[in-house]
Amino acid sequence: MKGTSCEIAVLQHVDEMRAFSTKCRNENRIIGFVPTMGALHEGHLSLIARAKAVCDVVICSIFVNPTQFNDPKDLLLYPRTEEADIDLLKNAGCDVVFVPAVNEMYPTGQEVRDYNFGTLTSEWEGRFRPGHFNGVITVVKRLFEIVLPHQSFFGKKDFQQFSVIREWVRRDEIKVEIVGCDTVRASDGLALSSRNKRLSSEQATLATAFSKALLFIRENKSKNNVNALIAEATEMFIEKEQIELQYFTIANSETLEPLEEISEANHQVALIAGFIGGVRLIDEIELN
Ligand code: PAF
Predict the structure, then answer these.
(1) How far apart are CA 168 and CA 234, in angstroms?
(2) Centroid of ligand 1 to alpha carbon of 160 (angstroms)
(3) Residue 44 annotated among the catalytic residues of the structure
């Protein structure tokens, strides 16, 4: 079954999902997988398009994973738009959408393993969302065991998540190729995110300060001194009292270790996170 805009299978149960994927594998069809938590936007659809370009069958999951939310209020407020999401996926030519209930994903309770990859898991998101990556890896591992993908596609807006998953796959010798895809932005630069649905239009305009600060970093990276550069870019947030920055850094894009100087010797990424109103946003820009 190759996806067209008029057919999509909606599967809810682990057994039927795994049976479908096993059949595809037996037929030597390459499975591309896009895991999501729904509230889909153009960023997700770009992952589907990327998967469609290189795989024979494209599977998307929609599962708001409780074990990766360290803040119960955030989980409660996470936007849920399943019907609209399925329509978008259908039109994007996705073949199958897997929409399991919590007890399908966690039949024996919501246990998570502890993953410690040093800075990769302990800093940035790891520091401000303790346990977050344990929940992410736990659910992605379970999804991979059900969906049996050859390739899985992740947006680089969640740059640290992409890096952590890539490292976990490398360490545990998981036979899935992890494909990182560029952040998709609105015309004003705002990185697309499911959380943007919770911003007022005034807050969404304010939120463009994140991408402007990141762009400033990239345009001025020849200044080399990271502290000076970050201090200058942070001035963009002065008089924007509604924005509460959590971190703003330039890091080695492999290890996510913070850098003091930008040099030709390594690749760098600038990472930023903060709250606008009650909404937490993150963004990234690669500097090479
Ligand atoms: O990026 C997300 O939407 C989630 O963290 C993921 C990868 C689907 C795991 O729940």
Answers:
(1) 33
(2) 12
(3) yes
pLDDT digits (tens, 9 = 90+) for 47-91: 999 999 999 999 999 999 999 998 999 999 999 999 999 999 999
User: Beta strand pairing status for 243-252 and 268-276?
Assistant: antiparallel
- Whole-prediction pTM: 0.96
- Joined tokens for residue 130: 């303790």
Ligand 1 binding pocket, CB closer than 6 Å: 35-37, 65, 68, 136, 139-140, 158, 161
Domains contained in the chain, CATH given: 9-181 (3.40.50.620), 194-283 (3.30.1300.10)
Spot the catalytic one: 41, 44, 132, 150. Answer: 44
140-179 per-position pLDDT tens digit = 999 999 999 999 999 999 999 999 999 999 999 999 999 9
Q: Report the residue among 85, 137, 161 best suited for mutation to probe ligand 1: largest number of ligand atoms under 8 A from its CB.
A: 161
240 φ, ψ (degrees, to nearest 5): -110, 75
- Which residue is listed with tokens 């494209």? 58
Ligand 1 centre from 269 Cα, in Å? 21
Helix (H, G, I), strand (E, B) or coil at 281: strand
User: Is 253 or 5 the better-scoring residue by pLDDT?
Assistant: 253
Cβ proximity of 115 and 172 under 8 Å: no
